Amino acid sequence: MTDTKKKQIAVIAGAGPAGLTAAYELLKQTDILPIVCEKTGAIGGISQTVQYHGNRMDIGGHRFFSKSDRVMQWWQEVMPLQSKPSKDDILLQETEKEFAKVGPDPEKEDRVMLLRRRVSRIFFLRKFFDYPISMKKETFLNMGLMRMLRAGFGYLWACVHKLPETSLENFYINRFGRPLYEMFFEDYTTKVWGVHPSKLGADWGSQRVKGLSILAVLKDMWRKNFGKQDNAQVETSLIEQFVYPKYGPGQLWELVAHDIQSKGGVVRLHTEVEQINVRQGRVASVVVRNEDGTTEELACDYFLSTMPIKDLVPALKGVEVPDDVARVAAALPYRDFITVGLLVNKMKIKNETKLRTYAERVPDTWIYIQERDVRIGRLQVFNNWSPYLVKDYENTMWIGLEYFCTEGDELWNMSSEDFINMAKSELAKIDIIDEKDVLDACHVKIEKAYPAYYGSYYQLDGVKQFLNTIPNLFCLGRNGQHRYNNMDHSMMTAFETVDLIINGNIDDKSTIWNVNTETEYHESK
């Protein structure tokens, strides 16, 4: 058991990227003992890797890329980039087929990052379009003459008639024109959020695709053909390479959790923070519920919360929570997430790109499904994230079908068997697989995966102001701030939190809340 006597203690709610990064940094830079309490039995939050019958599934898909040098160096500290060509690298070059025999290699260090190439495309009209939309000949051929003309005139009109950016719909129209917005953004965005883009705030778009537009695409094409490629100057959605843990993102966060414990920190699974006790204006202790149902009070000097604000506010005891704060927090909207993993003999779609792939398989890491007659939002091909995610890489393909829903709705309440059957039939309907080729399947549900930008979200400032009055309470990470942060942004909120604690400047938390609101963007899916 860890000796907690005479040490300051930081209780951290959540073992996702933000919580684990904070714990790691506290051990690295201070004498503060971190105690991480994770409600579930999984490490990594939405960045976990689910294992099923020898195959590994990346929930949501996580590219390890950031324009923050501190984040990139931190990842390299935990998992160095493989310095010599691996089987994975050779596989991409497809020099010899025997190098496709991948799997754990006892002669090589498994604690490594692989260099990956990003291929993401849109599947629409039963055809592939580049994501982001490119100006290639294939784009225009797939679109057809009339759609192409409408898109061109629509974009020109949008260049001279700007709409007020009062919604995500107007944000997209201003950058792409209405026809392209209707083709490639409207229905997919509605699938993700469950509401029409006209009801969503423009700040979601400015956060996720801030610099992306047709002009950015054209500039990128110019750089590729006539200039020097500089990732620091390229809109992040156009970045073509990233690093990736050999066995998926969960591998990195499991290693971080292991390192935290080996250095004297505590990581407790199946431990839910139920109550936060405030005394004399500061968090003095938290009450947690253990897996066996017993409760325990943990004294603390700091409380770092990555738990949803919706759960955090009602858990506060010993402080008067204003009615407006309680109301806004209780009404904060979220979108939940369901992934179906399918193991198949093969996919019906083939590689028609110029990229070389094993057995002419599609090269995509993920595919955005824009078809209106199915509910699937996105399709991952785990073989292309890392061959080590797939037990039998040579003979099978391991794919993930992603659905967005709200807890309690029809999709969320559907049985695993019915959901898997629906998912298989949808992929067959749009000619991506044949149902008879499915060998195995699993069904994974993730609560509160995406903080949503509508409803009471627009009154969140009052909640933040109230939470900031408790000096040793810090809100970080995606759900901790109710902000659609990527993994690197969540880590940066942890860095800022630890920096403030070290500097003793815990009364002003603006630097934590300002992560991912700056003009320089870091990473986008």
What features would you highlight for this structure?
20 strands, 525 residues, FAD/NAD(P)-binding domain, 3 domains, alpha/beta, five-stranded parallel β-sheet, 20 helices, single chain, 21% strand, Polyamine Oxidase, Chain A, domain 2
What is the structure about, briefly put?
With 525 residues, the chain is an alpha/beta fold.
**Alpha plus pi helix count:** 20
Low-confidence stretches: 90-107, 229-238, 519-525
Q: Give the neighbour order of strands across the main sheet.
A: 7-6-16-17-18-15-19
Computed structural class: alpha/beta
Shape, per Cα inertia axes: globular
Major sheet attributes? 7 strands, mixed
Within CATH, the superfamily of the largest domain carries the name: FAD/NAD(P)-binding domain
What CATH architecture of the largest domain would you give? 3-Layer(bba) Sandwich
- Output mean pLDDT: 87
Cα-to-Cα separation, first versus last residue? 41 Å
Number of strands: 20
What portion of residues belong to β-strands?
Answer: 15-25%
CATH topology of the largest domain: FAD/NAD(P)-binding domain
Radius of gyration: 23 Å
* Domain module count: 3
What is the top-level CATH class of the largest domain? Alpha Beta
